[in-house]
Amino acid sequence: MATLTFFGAVEGVTGSCYLIRTDSVQVLLECGLYQGRAEEVRQNAQPFPFDPEELDAVILSHAHLDHSGRLPKLVSDGYRGKVYTTRATLELLEIMLKDAAFLNERDIEWQNRRRARSGKPLLEPLYTLEDVENAFAQCEGVTYDRRITVAGGIELCFREAGHILGSALVELYVSDKGVTRKLVFSGDLGNDCAALLRDPEIINEADLVMLESTYGDHDHRSHKQTLDELHDILSGAADEGTNVLIPSFAVGRTQELLFRLGEFYQAGELKQQLVMLDSPMAIAATEVYHRYLHVFNQEDAQQMAESRATTLHSFLPILRYSRTAEESIAINRIKGGAIIIAGSGMCDGGRIRHHFKHNLWRKGTHVIIVGYQAYGTPGRALIDGAKTLHLFGEEVVVKANVHTLGGFSAHAGQSQLREWLNNFSAAAPRVFLVHGEEEKKQALRSVLAKDGWQAQIPGMGETVSL
Ligand code: ZN
């Protein structure tokens, strides 16, 4: 009998990991990293709850680390088969996993210096750059809408998820003892207002649906309102001659922002003369986006074409890249009139912290928060009105204006999740809610019940039959 076991993103939104077993094969869907609180992060180093050597195939829905970030560990723990993902995901994955390996190795090295001094045993990094290279040798890029066999009796088809470039909904056809069951995994379901990306594909049939529920409890603020607000903040800052700092995630959010700033620019409504993208990883990801312009949604692609733009760079000609540390340091000399986009998204690392040090204490500086900020991060502290921020060993006073824009989400809001699910036919599939905090899942379950769905919330390690 074919089964599905929930091994991750069960009690939260990170560590996505699901195992499909038939009598003859085992396929892993997602191999995500646990992120956030220390007790969650510690789970990354634990052995997998299955034998990686026994797996026949691995499938990844998209490049975000909470869906892909334990892949090098899986390979270093013995997995030798193929890893299937979309082609764009493959390119983004390389950037993200190498960065993750680099940061992890550096972090462990730093911890080990302390541990050595206090006589404690040394730690091993979760994986190394070499493990990442090995994992890549096993990856295979698949085009959307093509049904392929990934293991005996298991066929896969990726559909557009509209979440980030390359993101996919996963359709799996699982055959066991002459019976075929169709499983649909929403992956991270996109927000249909997102720039550049196509809308999530509508699917009508399945025997079992795994639905994400990150924003299962509410809808996002209207997109129009969010853009108006962004416009007003930028306009005000330009009039004051002050800098605007935007901490941003390298993949997805940054490219969306560049597109929106490009729209303002093309409409003659951007008063600033300079947009600095100060993040090597975001620059690399933007270059990948440029190679996939043909998969952008028609409206946005047309808008770029009408402006004779072939890249986000030509759509927003005042955009400058800052790749090296020297170029980044030079930005400190800009005292006003610039928009500075830098990582990390939650301000807990990366170059944004340097820009905070040089700008947060200045009255008139504007900080725009455009992404999710987890509890305990400096980004969260800023939203919550922190008076000072601890940066590079000093307390920096916060005199900047901090704005939070709620409408830039790469995830579907509650109504969008509900609408997407309601496309499934009358022969209603069983629905399992994953990838959400408990209260979000409960809220989504209640609202889905109004449409006649009896969605289930699986527990960690729970197995269901297909
Ligand atoms: Zn994601």
Describe this structure in words.
The protein is built from 15 helices and 21 strands. The protein has helices at 38-41, 65-68, 71-76, 87-117, 129-137, 223-240, 253-266, 280-291, 298-306, 312-315, 325-330, 352-359, 378-383, 414-421, 438-449, and strands at residues 3-8, 17-21, 26-29, 57-59, 82-86, 139-142, 148-151, 154-160, 168-176, 179-185, 208-212, 244-247, 274-278, 319-321, 338-342, 366-369, 388-391, 394-397, 401-404, 430-434, 463-465. The chain has a 7-stranded mixed beta sheet. The chain has a 6-stranded mixed beta sheet with strand order 7-8-9-10-11-20, with helices on one face. The protein has a 6-stranded parallel beta sheet with strand order 14-13-15-12-16-19, with helices on both faces. A hairpin with a 7-residue loop joins strand 8 and strand 9. Helix 4 packs antiparallel against helix 5 and helix 4 runs antiparallel to helix 8. The longest helix has 31 residues, at 87-117. The radius of gyration is 22 Å and the shape is globular. The mean pLDDT is 94. The site of zinc ion has 4 residues, from loops.
